[in-house]
Write a structure and sequence with these properties.
It contains 1 helix and 8 strands. With 111 residues, the chain is α+β, with helices and mostly antiparallel strands. An 8-stranded antiparallel beta barrel has the order 1-2-3-4-5-6-7-8.
Length: 111
Amino acid sequence: MRLRVCPLFAVFFICLAALAGCGDSTGVPGSYVAELNGKQGQSIDLRLEPDGRGYWTSDQDAIAFKWESQAPQILLHTRDGGIIQGTLSQGLIEFTIPGAGRVAFKKVVIR
């Protein structure tokens, strides 16, 4: 009996770990918007695609990047090799951008 129980527990924990690993980014893809403080009407759009591609669009820039989720962190990988680290919490992604400070993106819910 003991030999049968150990493999069953091992299979259970492997399945549980796989499910937990898959759930990290399922709610992350989508569109986000950040309103710029002190700059009325200006915003930055952030789009995270399910395949790991992403786009950062503002009045001055349009930047493509790759992204990954390592809950609770979001990592944006730039084409120049840089990594911008953000924190995800309840539909809000916060980044600290060198030279710009803190930028908070709120998930856009389309109904």
